[in-house]
Design brief:
Elements (H helix, E strand, L loop, with lengths): L1 H38 L12 H27 L2 H11 L5 H10 L1 E3 L2 E3 L3 E4 L6 E3 L3 E10 L4 E9 L4 E6 L1 H11 L6 E2 L3 H9 L1 H7 L1 H4 L2
Parallel strand pairs: 5-8
Antiparallel strand pairs: 1-2, 2-3, 3-4, 5-6, 6-7
Helix pairs in contact: 1-2, 6-7
């Protein structure tokens, strides 16, 4: 499971990291030395064909792209699937890797998220593993841009946290229907629940969670 999820995570983020790194290195190799020379008050040869403003902008964009690539790479490494699973097991000594593997193998897959009988698992989820028993609320958000629309599955947990994950539109209702099979999970997009969840978690949990959780 860990290897499979880790590969998926790198396949998802790898091209973006490589693109940013490639653009950053290309821009810096072209504009970097000229920008440094210009900062020292010496006219670079490149200024014969381009303005210093363009040179400085190109160097800044290159540096920004390279820094962004490094940040994404560090995040990938620090939030690696294996590391997060080990952290979960360390915090839950009563759980074994074999139990997680078994639940994962029998889980329903929706894109990059697997919903099993005990856990929700996904490489893009914070923590990778979420106990279904600790999910109190499921709803969705829609982010409509000019050219595309992004759908998010939102999981509200008993500790007051919201875990969001980008999902395909066709999977959204299927996932909500799967979570509806758990009687302790409230499935609702009401803004009233959002306010209560954020400001009065105890009252929110009394609506459905506390009455049905085992």
């Amino acid at each position: 499971m860990i290897k499979k999820l880790a590969i998926r995570k790198w396949v998802s983020a790898g091209p973006i990291i490589l693109f940013c790194a490639g653009c950053g290195c290309a821009l810096l190799s072209w504009y970097g030395a000229a920008a440094l020379r210009g900062l020292r008050g010496l006219p670079p040869r490149l200024s014969e064909s381009q303005s210093m403003d363009n040179i400085y902008i190109g160097a800044v964009l290159g540096l920004f792209a390279l820094v962004l690539a490094v940040i994404m790479l560090v995040r990938q490494l620090s939030l690696g699937v294996g590391r997060q699973v080990k952290r979960y097991l360390a915090n839950n000594p009563e759980v074994t890797m074999e139990q997680i593997e078994s639940d994962y193998a029998a889980a329903e897959q929706y894109g990059d998220i697997w919903i099993g009988s005990r856990w929700t698992i996904g490489y893009d989820l914070i923590g990778v593993i979420i106990e279904n028993e600790k999910i109190a609320w499921v709803y969705n958000e829609v982010d409509r841009g000019r050219k595309s629309t992004q759908y998010y599955l939102c999981l509200g947990t008993v500790d007051g946290k919201i875990v969001k994950s980008s999902v395909e539109r066709e999977h959204l209702e299927q996932m909500k229907a799967r979570y509806a099979q758990f009687p302790h999970i409230l499935i609702d997009n009401s803004s009233e629940y959002e306010h209560m969840f954020k400001n009065n978690l105890a009252a929110f949990l009394d609506i459905q969670y506390n009455q049905n959780v085992k």
